Amino acid sequence: MGAGEGAVGSTLMVVAGEASGDLHGAALCRALRARVPGLRLTGMGGDLMAAAGVGLLAHVRDVAVVGLSEVTRRLPALWRSWRRLVAALDRERPRALVLIDFPGFNLRLARRARRLGVPVVYYVPPQVWAWRPGRLARIRRDVALVLAVLPFEAPLYRAAGVPVAYVGHPILDALVGAPSREAARRLLGLAPTDLVVGLLPGSRPHEVARLLPLMRAAAVRLAAARPGARFVLARAPTVGAADLARRLDGGPPVQVEAGRTHAVMRAADLLLVASGTAALEAALLGTPMVVCYRVSRATAFVARRVLRVPWISLANLVLGRAVVPELYTPADATPARLAAEALRLLDTPAARAAQRAAFAELAAELGPPGVADRAAQLVLAQARVAA
Q: Domain total for the chain?
């Protein structure tokens, strides 16, 4: 069967619920379309997935949440998105449902799809190794194939009786073509000798609302200790420029860059970065960092009781040791502590070199690019669509 012939009358539904899922979903959808040009794609995602050819039934900006208190505020939007997706599942019966992260929402959708006879592929699966291991039973029941993105996930899912394949982390593909340090500094108008501190406060508005004041206050202390330092912030497309400017008011001058996250990561001597995908990207690009996070007191209270791992950043988790400092409890995530950790790294070349060596080890653990194409091949096989 020639390319595209298996796509006649074929639809795949792809569902992501936040900015990182939109990024990974877009790469996967491009790879699916490259293998089967006539394939119809529908689901939930963001602007990147829409540009990759997905007919959006719901947008990530309406549903992305972090923490328990944010879920309550987003419930009406989550419910509307859920109803649209369920209606499309019932109406179209796609050849497969591809879920990307966002487990609280997506596992419920998986159950509905399984009842309709639609095979479910979970790409970037729930982090059952960190918390809520009880989800393994639901995944075993409702998911036809898990596409693991971290090396230690595949043995865990396999031991639980879940069909699984390790494809590698999709960030590996996203980093192909990232600029060199020199090129990044030229692009951002930074001199080779500038001391550059990069700020990456996250991609969700509520996340930025909590983290950016912490980073701004830490930057005040860093600017006092290093008067010539340049501060550059990478703005996610899901975060408004006016909101950022308001939250930066009162701090040192900050150069805000939209659409140049990898350049900011490469150009910086040190990053203050939100825990999550950005921290993994920065590690794979080799930039020393301090990882921080802030959640509501309710979320922190629950997290202390349910987390099953000693770290929150993927670099530490994959390597199994404390490679980067993490500040996320109310006692640790303070401006004084964040600034102190940043200055310790800036003042200690050996500490920065140790991080870079660990990041090279991390890259070897995660494997080569080509993740989206490997995932697409497995999705099409599960959907029984010939490429």
A: 2
